[in-house]
Amino acid sequence: MSENSFDVIVIGSGPGGYVAAIRAAQLGLKTAIVEREHLGGICLNWGCIPTKALLRSAEILDHANHAKAYGLVLDGQMKPDVDAVVDRSRKVSARLNGGVGMLMKKNKISVIWGEAKLTKPGEIKVSKPSRPAVEPQHPAPKNTLGEGTYSAKHIILATGARPRALPGIEPDGELIWTYFEAMKPKSLPESLVVMGSGAIGIEFASFYLSMGVDVTVVELMDQIMPVEDAEVSKIARKALEKRGLKIITGAKISKVDKHKDAVTAHVETKDGKTETIKADRLISAVGVQGNIENLGLEDLGVKTDRGCVVIDGYGRTNVDGLYAIGDVAGPPMLAHKAEHEGVICVEKIAGVEGVHPMNRNHIPGCTYCNPQVASVGLTEARAKEAGYDIRVGRYNFAANGKAIALGDDTGLVKTIFDKKTGELLGAHMVGAEV
């Protein structure tokens, strides 16, 4: 096999991509991974990991502001140093970014630096990235391959996703932010509007609220965190509003006026009411869309649906030898789901016995706001819609020893069972450290 020929080529080095590459190498397959920007992808560099570092700073600040309740006396004022907070989060990402490079080397995975495009089944052409890296992390690993044509029996698309933009409210990097700008503010705004209350929107709303910013969340659906159980969402909303977060549900932002250093958001509710909110900045958090462009998918006849590649339970597309995993393969767009998809896909390729297809009803999800939210399986409403006769269990944190010891007994554990079989259909939690 020539230097440019492989058993498996993975396009994209996010959680799904690098885990798939490592598993392929472990199973004895000659493997390469193509990356155009940063090893580790969005999650490690601009998503899951650095946001958790920011939220940890927010959590410590929240605790410090309530130190007296824990018998502690702090002399002097506790306040955030936003530059130091951001710097810490970037260092966390940089450390892990370097770790992925070491894992590639350890597992003898060839790293190809550049932008890949499918030219025919089993072949890609790699060219220079069409844009520079957003922010340098670690340099490319030594002995990295570059531009050229590469072939493989199996090619896995793990190209991830990017922020979705609404027409007329496109992020500009200055007044209208995505998660990228929200993750590294030059200074703290005094006021902020967050458009969308999924995990990204609520986590940033919670972070900036802890930093002392006046935050308003606008959500199109009737509840915040729309994918979560309605009862859990209601408890989370009440707790967030108690902390000072302003929340408007059942409403959309129809237009945003830009000023010199502020925005005015025009809000329309479902019952026809309108209001305007003036703020220093607006975060657009209305979801993400798969990176399917400029990959050559159309020329190969690869099926896509609503911006994502169509796959089966093993990551296989309609084109032999071509697979997709992670965000580019559709929701739920979660790092651990991408990793598991990568393992399933590669083990199927390698002929491992007993590989089970992905069951999307069994994927857990977490939102690291304050209070935290975690869930797996069906919500109460979805279980009823599916025709189950259910039994619901609830345990309130007001009677939970750890929650009381933590000084935060707001929360609930809720379980959904099939009354006939006793099967656990879903579990949902809201509260401190869930």
Residue fraction in strands: 25-35%
Query: How many β-strands, per DSSP?
Result: 24
pLDDT < 50 runs, ≥5 residues: none
Named at the architecture level, the CATH assignment of the largest domain is 3-Layer(bba) Sandwich
* Structural domain count: 3
Contiguous helical run count? 11
- The CATH H-level superfamily of the largest domain is FAD/NAD(P)-binding domain
CATH hierarchy class name of the largest domain: Alpha Beta
- The gyration radius over C-alpha positions equals 23 Å
3D shape: globular
Spatial gap, N to C terminus = 50 Å
Largest sheet: 7 strands, mixed
Helix content: 25-40%
CATH topology of the largest domain: FAD/NAD(P)-binding domain
Structural class: alpha/beta
| Rounded average pLDDT | 95
Structural features:
FAD/NAD(P)-binding domain, alpha/beta, 24 strands, 3 domains, seven-stranded mixed sheet, 434 residues, Enolase-like, domain 1
Short description:
With 434 residues, the chain is an alpha/beta fold. The chain is 29% helix and 28% strand.
What is the element layout, followed by pairings?
Elements: E1 5-11, H1 15-26, E2 31-35, H2 41-46, H3 48-65, H4 82-106, E3 110-113, E4 115-120, E5 123-127, E6 148-157, E7 161-163, E8 176-177, H5 179-183, E9 191-195, H6 199-210, E10 214-218, H7 230-243, E11 246-248, E12 251-258, E13 263-269, E14 274-279, E15 281-284, E16 288-290, H8 297-300, E17 304-305, E18 308-309, E19 322-324, H9 335-350, E20 365-367, E21 372-377, H10 380-385, E22 390-396, H11 401-406, E23 412-418, E24 424-431
Parallel strand pairs: 1-2, 1-6, 2-3, 6-19, 8-15, 9-10, 9-15, 10-11
Antiparallel strand pairs: 4-5, 5-6, 7-16, 12-13, 13-14, 17-18, 20-21, 21-24, 22-23, 23-24
